[in-house]
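Deliverable D2.4 — example input (structure tokens):
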């Protein structure tokens, strides 16, 4: 069984709940990630000879599970982790979280319960990683980074610096040039490696195996990096922790000449504006030959020069630094001039602000390339600062943003207001070596000017209307449909303001444009359909999605008004949220997995009187493993679903009517007597109240029957004579010719059920019986609904095993994947209408009233206010 990322992530994050309360995220991350590591390596390598990790006797996750409920659970877990660490030279790496810490995990039973619950979650919710074999799948390492991202979010500004957002890591990996590495002894280095995400992403981008080296000052964080690399199947990486890169660099030349070791590629996100970089500083010639030294209180250029020193003759680096390095003066200006004159800076990428967890300031990527530096004649610049999406209180790069940045940079594509190659002459002679991106790339945000003539005399300026020329060229008749000439240089709206959107939709060219958007999707679908129908064990999911994404870019390139990167984003977002899980399952289990269902269970443990525990597992629901049952029902049981929908509509309507009766009840109404404290109908109280009102009904017959009930009843042989003397009691006679207490009460009940209630009860009775009718309808239909749902659920469940190969493809590809993607693409078409309509409405609102009209309106309002105030006694 392949592992679904979404389910794994959910389980991991749920496990954090067991620890919350006693510590913050910066602390409990160590516990969760340590357990994830132990569980993963135990599943993958226990009993495996020559595995990446040795799992010793007494050092596995199974040994931990045996401790559940043990009064010394924390102490014994630490011993198990110590054995695993000792066997793999991981002391100080995986044993930083102490499971016997009473300050964090509580004392006595609290610790036992907390750790037992945590182990139970890992046991019950985590998959068996030994059974997961999808080639090229980094699901566990990705889960590790999912946790790191969430921990960074919860830890806040002061503690989130151990994590570089994955999207930024991928940019560095793509622009550093490692994807062109040749087979051989390729080396990769990060002097401030944090949790190791940059190293991992760069290594993944390489077409060959690379030797990985990293240094991290914080020992605990270095341990996280080691675990991260193991989880990404890169256990041979060398990570040195607990040492400062400036006072004690750990990587020296193998020939023992004392010089810094040099590498082929470097990626780094060093601490911004490090004020303590000179503490214990050892030179190693890192700062020689640049015209000046980095300032003592700002280590940005110190890190950059260390990286340059650590590069081989043709080495390449990508470094994240704050924007200040591009334009700050004094010593930094001298160093920047030297770097430019040496030709070392290949490119600069400006990123959005507020991407990183340690700071909200904007950053940039400096791309260093020593190869052919002396022949370089300029710097390629990108301003990607406006491309992001908001996610909570942070900004995040989308898939489209990452792709656009990396593609534009690597292919040196010049886009207006986004990217350009800037020759040295402009940098050196015209801007005095200042690399501030804003000097070379206009923001592209043109100022929206107000027209005085339009405000004074009315009319929409033709300059604003002509500013929408891209739309008018695509839809030639639309401009005339929306605007008509007013006077020279001005237009007026040709339709009612409320009809703007409908006028756009009604335009024939705009309607035809929908076909262009749809046809592009259909063309993409035709090209990729064969690949999606032939996924098997040899399929590489990451290569597959790359092909799918490249194709969708090609198809939407010629579609005007739709940004091809938006189409790319729709595909990649769906891939990350849904489709990747599906593809990995297909790679693992084949298309037959569509026939499988997933049953959800809930396990409860009840303690018996004798102290033993009784475990009870109940099924709480099910769904298709790959195709949701909603699609199976839609395809095969539409009639049954319609019957259910119809009944739900009846129930909803009756409930709405019932609620309306309750909401409109006046004070003193009997309805208020049959409601709960929360204002809901109490069915028992309702029935009792109705019976109470009916018991007040009195007729001549009921009075005679009540009198009979309170007297001695006639014997069977006396009944006939009694009825002749008391004809009102004849209906109380039974079929056997007797009169009994039961027959009298039955007749009284029949009278009360059919006779009119007393007039003073009539309104209340009508309202209460109306409530009862609605509630009875709801109850009856709900019972029917429950039965229908049960039958349909059973049919749908049985249908999965009956699916043919053709039906499998129809459900998975057409009804799940393609339908979801086409729905996203359709929003691109509707957004065009939205953009036109919003701009036209904005212009109409802006010039709708002339200045004289506004002044007259203000004067009228002022007069009304003054009149009101005078009537209130305010005179001035």
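Example output (designed residues):
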């Amino acid at each position: 069984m392949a592992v679904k990322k979404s389910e794994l992530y959910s389980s991991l994050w749920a496990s954090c709940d067991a620890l919350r309360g006693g510590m913050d995220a910066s602390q409990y991350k160590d516990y969760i990630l340590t357990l994830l590591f132990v569980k993963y390596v135990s599943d993958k390598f226990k009993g495996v000879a020559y595995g990446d990790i040795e799992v010793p006797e007494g050092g596995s996750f199974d040994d931990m599970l045996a401790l559940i409920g043990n009064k010394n659970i924390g102490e014994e877990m630490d011993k198990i982790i110590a054995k695993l660490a000792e066997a793999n030279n991981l002391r100080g790496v995986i044993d930083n979280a102490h499971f016997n810490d009473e300050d964090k995990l509580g004392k006595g039973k609290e610790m036992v319960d907390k750790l037992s619950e945590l182990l139970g979650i890992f046991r019950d919710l985590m998959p068996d990683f030994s059974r997961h074999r999808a080639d090229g799948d980094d699901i566990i390492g990705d889960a590790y980074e999912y946790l790191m991202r969430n921990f960074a979010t919860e830890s806040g500004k002061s503690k989130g610096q151990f994590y570089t957002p994955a999207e930024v890591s991928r940019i560095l990996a793509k622009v550093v040039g490692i994807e062109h590495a040749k087979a051989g002894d390729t080396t990769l280095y990060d002097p401030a490696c944090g949790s190791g995400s940059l190293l991992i992403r760069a290594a993944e981008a390489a077409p060959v195996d690379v030797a990985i080296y990293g240094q991290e000052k914080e020992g605990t964080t270095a341990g996280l990096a080691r675990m991260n690399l193991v989880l990404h199947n890169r256990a041979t990486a060398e990570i040195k922790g607990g040492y400062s890169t400036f006072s004690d660099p750990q990587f020296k030349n193998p020939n023992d000449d004392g010089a810094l070791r040099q590498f082929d590629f470097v990626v780094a996100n060093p601490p911004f504006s490090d004020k303590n970089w000179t503490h214990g500083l050892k030179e190693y010639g890192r700062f020689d030959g640049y015209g000046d030294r980095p300032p003592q209180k700002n280590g940005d250029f110190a890190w950059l020069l260390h990286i340059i020193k650590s590069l081989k003759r043709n080495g390449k680096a990508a470094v994240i630094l704050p924007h200040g390095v591009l334009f700050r003066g004094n010593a930094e200006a001298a160093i920047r001039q030297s770097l430019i004159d040496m030709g070392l800076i290949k490119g600069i990428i400006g990123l959005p602000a507020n991407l990183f967890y340690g700071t909200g300031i904007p950053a940039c990527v400096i791309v260093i390339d020593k190869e052919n530096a002396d022949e370089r004649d300029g710097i390629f610049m990108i301003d990607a600062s406006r491309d992001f999406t908001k996610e909570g209180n942070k900004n995040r790069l989308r898939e489209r943003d990452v792709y656009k940045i990396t593609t534009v940079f690597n292919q040196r594509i010049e886009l207006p207001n986004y990217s350009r190659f800037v020759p040295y002459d402009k940098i050196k002679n015209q801007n005095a070596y200042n690399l501030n991106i804003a000097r070379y790339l206009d923001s592209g945000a043109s100022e929206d000017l107000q027209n005085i003539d339009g405000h004074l005399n009315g009319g929409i300026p033709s300059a604003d209307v002509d500013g929408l020329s891209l739309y008018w060229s695509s839809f030639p008749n639309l401009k005339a449909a929306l605007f008509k000439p007013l006077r020279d240089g001005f237009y007026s709206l040709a339709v009612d303001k409320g009809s703007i959107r409908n006028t756009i939709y009604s335009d024939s060219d705009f309607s035809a444009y929908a076909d262009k958007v749809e046809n592009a999707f259909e063309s993409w679908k035709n090209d990729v359909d064969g690949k999606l129908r032939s996924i098997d064990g040899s399929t590489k999911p990451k290569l597959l999605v790359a092909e799918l994404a490249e194709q969708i870019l090609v198809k939407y390139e010629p579609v005007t008004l739709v940004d091809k990167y938006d189409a790319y984003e729709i595909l990649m977002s769906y891939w990350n949220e849904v489709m990747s899980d599906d593809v990995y399952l297909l790679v693992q289990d084949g298309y037959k997995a569509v026939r499988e269902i997933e049953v959800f269970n809930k396990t409860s443990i009840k303690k018996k009187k004798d102290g033993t525990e009784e475990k009870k597992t109940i099924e709480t629901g099910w769904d298709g493993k790959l195709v949701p049952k909603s699609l199976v029902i839609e395809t095969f049981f539409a009639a049954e679903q319609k019957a259910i929908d119809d009944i739900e509509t009846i129930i909803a309507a009756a409930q709405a009517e019932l609620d309306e009766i309750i909401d409109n009840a006046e004070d003193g109404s009997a309805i208020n007597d049959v409601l709960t404290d929360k204002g809901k109908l109490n069915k028992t109280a309702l029935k009792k109240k109705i019976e109470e009102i009916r018991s007040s009904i009195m007729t001549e017959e009921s009075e005679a029957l009540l009198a009979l009930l309170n007297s001695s009843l006639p014997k069977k042989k006396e009944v006939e004579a009694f009825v002749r003397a008391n004809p009102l009691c004849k209906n109380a006679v039974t079929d056997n010719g007797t009169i009994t207490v039961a027959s009298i009460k039955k007749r009284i009940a029949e009278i009360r059920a059919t006779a009119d209630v007393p007039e003073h009860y009539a309104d209340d009775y009508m309202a209460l019986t109306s409530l009862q009718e609605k509630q009875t309808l709801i109850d009856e239909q709900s019972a029917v609904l429950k039965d229908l749902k049960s039958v349909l659920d059973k049919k749908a469940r049985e249908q999965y095993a009956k699916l043919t190969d053709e039906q499998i493809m129809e459900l998975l590809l057409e009804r799940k994947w393609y339908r979801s993607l086409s729905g996203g693409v359709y929003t691109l078409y509707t957004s065009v209408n939205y953009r036109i309509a919003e701009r036209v409405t904005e212009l109409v609102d802006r010039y709708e009233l002339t200045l004289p009209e506004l002044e007259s309106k203000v004067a009228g309002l002022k007069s009304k206010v003054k009149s009101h105030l005078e009537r209130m006694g305010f005179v001035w």
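The mean pLDDT is 88.
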